[in-house]
Amino acid sequence: MADVAHLAGVSSQTVSRVSNGFAGVNEGTRQQVLAVMKELGYRPNSAARALKRGEFRTIGVITFTLSTTGNVRTLEAIATSAAQEGYAVTLLPVAVPTQDEVRGAFSRLGELAVDAAIVIMETHLLDAARLSLPPHVKVVVADSDAGDRYTVVDTDQAGGTRDAVQHLLGLGHRTVWHLAGPEESYAAQRRADAWRAALTEAGRVPPPLVRGDWSAESGYRCGLRLAGQPDCTAIFAANDQMALGLLRALHERGRAVPGDVSVIGFDDIPESASFLPPLTTVHQDFAEVGRRCVEGVLRQVRQSGADCGTTLVPTRLVARQSTAPPRQLR
Length: 330
Hints:
Elements: H1 2-8, H2 12-19, H3 27-40, H4 46-53, E1 58-63, H5 69-84, E2 88-93, H6 99-111, E3 116-120, E4 139-142, E5 151-155, H7 157-170, E6 177-180, H8 186-201, E7 210-211, H9 216-227, E8 234-237, H10 240-252, E9 262-267, E10 280-283, H11 286-303, E11 309-313, E12 316-318
Parallel strand pairs: 1-2, 1-3, 3-4, 4-5, 5-11, 6-7, 6-8, 8-9, 9-10
Antiparallel strand pairs: 10-12
């Protein structure tokens, strides 16, 4: 720092203010200092700065699995938003979704020196009815029902499901079958509950629920069963991957989409527009979920306070070629 100050003709304090991004430095002076820093290869010592300020500019992310599209895209969005704020991300996968594992993860994050944490909690805990985190921790929970005790960010699962069901009913289908996600998933539970409620509100009797595990293979297996239901003309799949397997099963059983059966998914993964036929689906704004998670946790870091409650990120229906009116209405 002294070398930079000498060569730039400024004080060490000015170099410090420029390197830390503080305001109050003349723009010409700032550019001069930055040029000298580049020339000398000077980089601030982040470890020393962390010790001095008591902050590490790192957010810990605890997640139970990286095998689902939703978790991976949420993690990507968190990392992108954190980088825009000048923060790094430390990832800590948890092998088994139990309360003890979660406590252990927070203990390890403390050793890794993070300022706050985001928990991507897509599944229910196996050994506890409710999530319980260490007291006074700065944390945001993504995809959970803990909004009465923590800051929670989630997609509007119910709203997106309602749009999907109403879209199919609006095309003239008498009812909508549901290919649900795994029972332990919060998102799958909300989508199944909202599917049932939307049909009931419309005066329709919900058909038997068929359950997959988010994978295309499970969608295929369930699709073989659904293809044998002659009165099944519309199916809402809880995610696009299962919808992909479902499309294959219907094709193999000679049931045209959307000629015989309309199919709608959830997520709007980039590949869904390239399915055959292109998939009608519910778009999740993962980038906004990640941004709000980072925004919420940094608010706690900077203001030392948490706002308990759930923030829902809106969805939107993307209509493509996999849905159409039932054959008898054409």
